[in-house]
Design brief:
The chain is α/β, with parallel strands linked by helices and 228 residues long. The chain has a single domain (5-227), classed as Phosphatidylinositol (PI) phosphodiesterase (TIM Barrel), CATH 3.20.20.190. It is built from eight helices and nine strands. Strand 2 (34-41) and strand 3 (47-49) form a beta hairpin. Helix 1 packs parallel to helix 3.
Length: 228
């Protein structure tokens, strides 16, 4: 394993349509250490893996993902050839072989995600070492912390590394997930001194990858995990 974890962003987004089982498989074929995905709760209560709050950019449907039933979503086409997977399908594919970073994208995703994690841990199908739950939404992370403080958390930020560190301490988070544009050698060092891992996103160009590596981050999340 390299000095940092190689994490595929929404699978291998630079190669195959994001957040599809095919994209995740592609990232696994590149021997990544982890996969980052996004979840929303649909109208019937299931967790689906999709980035946007609306269907328009990537599918032949329209409207809010949270207002559609699972069967409505499963009947849609993603970029004319894929389907929207459920979180369970993604977990089945990854099968505890590598890290899954579940980003709580939609509202109310924390508790259903925790329920699934709990089930996987109890059935001994997964180890908590291979699970990381991240979000920009602080209330969702607080909900996970209150449900089970052992679930590893990552605080996403595109605004301030320092603020992310301060908040991370309040929920005993394992990591901060800053946009790579915020990073410097000093603030990475500071986060590490506070006992936090630093997982940078989304680092795609050879130049940027080289620079972020030099800061000794713990993980790099990329659309092109093969470049890592």
């Amino acid at each position: 394993m390299s000095a940092f974890l190689k994490i595929g962003h929404r699978g291998a987004k630079g190669h195959v349509t994001e957040n599809t089982l095919q994209s995740i498989q592609k990232a696994m074929d590149f021997n990544v250490d982890g996969i980052e995905i996004d979840v929303h709760v649909c109208k019937t209560g299931e967790l689906v893996v999709f980035h946007d709050f609306t269907l328009d950019r990537l599918t032949n449907g329209t409207g809010e993902i949270g207002k559609k039933t699972l069967s409505q979503l499963q009947n849609l086409q993603v970029e004319d050839q894929y389907t929207i997977p459920t979180l369970r399908e993604v977990l089945q594919l990854i099968d505890n072989k590598l890290l899954i970073n579940i980003e709580l994208k939609g509202e109310g995703t924390a508790i259903p995600t925790c329920n699934i994690i709990q089930e996987l841990i109890n059935d001994k199908k997964w180890s908590l070492d291979n699970i990381l739950v991240s979000s920009f939404q602080q209330n969702e992370l607080v909900d996970v912390f209150n449900y089970d403080s052992n679930i590893p958390l990552g605080v996403l930020t595109k605004a301030s590394v320092n603020q992310a560190i301060v908040f991370a301490k309040t929920i005993n988070a394992k990591a901060i997930h800053p946009s790579f544009s915020l990073l410097s050698k000093n603030n990475v060092q500071k986060a590490k001194e506070e006992g936090l891992l630093v997982n940078a996103w989304t680092v795609n160009t050879k130049q940027a990858i080289k620079r972020i590596k030099s800061y000794q981050v713990d993980a790099i999340i990329s659309d092109f995990p093969d470049r890592l």
